[in-house]
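Notes, Module 5: Reading structure tokens.

Key idea: the token line is not a picture. It is a compressed description, and you learn to read it the same way you learned to read a sequence, by spotting repeated patterns. We will look at two proteins. The first is printed below with its tokens.
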Amino acid sequence: MNNTSTSTRMLAWTSDDQHRLETVRVVLTDRGLRASGHIVSALGDPFGVSYSLLADPEGRTRRLTVQTDSGTGERSLNLTRAPGGQWVADHGSGPRTLSLVEAAQDIDLLASAFTNSLAIRRMGLHRAVGSATVTVASVGCPDPEVSAVQHVYRTVSTDANGAVIAYSGPLGDRELIIDADGFVLHFPGLSDRLR
């Protein structure tokens, strides 16, 4: 008998200038979160991204797989966090340990609105007032190189519909609007949710 509760959501965002679209299917279970998404960007040098992500029941990212394509070629990345805490990256030429992002429990795919939800959900900042400075494993697009980046989140307000969260990071200072489930609705300068 399977007693696992499951819910599935389909989310979509567009950029302020309508030149980027992201869709993601999110499956939430007692065992964590699974997501599979696609990003298409037509601004500047066009590129496409396909990604899948797994997070454990505590919301910590365990694996990210990324495939990108652009005018300069195709690239891939498998980023996995081992049970001992080390991140291992494989760009197709063999795995290597990434000690620079060892403190990260979350990832941030730079062109993605969805991945900004991961730390917020993990810390419950959409449900209660709080603040945190977190190290994330930041993944570029269309070149999926990994670096360590600091994000600062502070809950400004919460209600039954979600929260307003002050964000500070590589994209500057923004006020994010978050839904009741912890997913980004509006990230000024990056994306607005369509559904």
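Here is the second protein, with the sequence above and the tokens below, as before.
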Amino acid sequence: MTAVQPALDGTIPTSRARQRADDYDSWVDAVRPALIKAAKTDKPFLFWHILRDPSLPLAPDPAHDPGRLAASLHRDGITRCAGYGKTLDRSCVQRWRGSRALLEGRVA
């Protein structure tokens, strides 16, 4: 995570802005549990619905990192494609759900 500059009186300012992760690996460590939790519900979901949670950090490269993580989860057998959905700008994106292996506890 990025450093926060204390105020002159020594207090840490509260920022409503989400922090951007410093690197891809730390971002994955922070957001992967939320995505796996969504996959375990066996309901279709869109990555951007999960990743917009204000408690999760922003990706270092928001244009590419979510897709890179989606491909990684699919390749690891955690998610499977469940059709398509739309982003806020009406672009078409893949919809995901948990794989049989995840739901049966064969992958983590």
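Summary for the second protein:
- The helical segments are 24-40, 47-51, 65-75, 100-103.
- Residues 7 and 13 are 7 Å apart (CA to CA).
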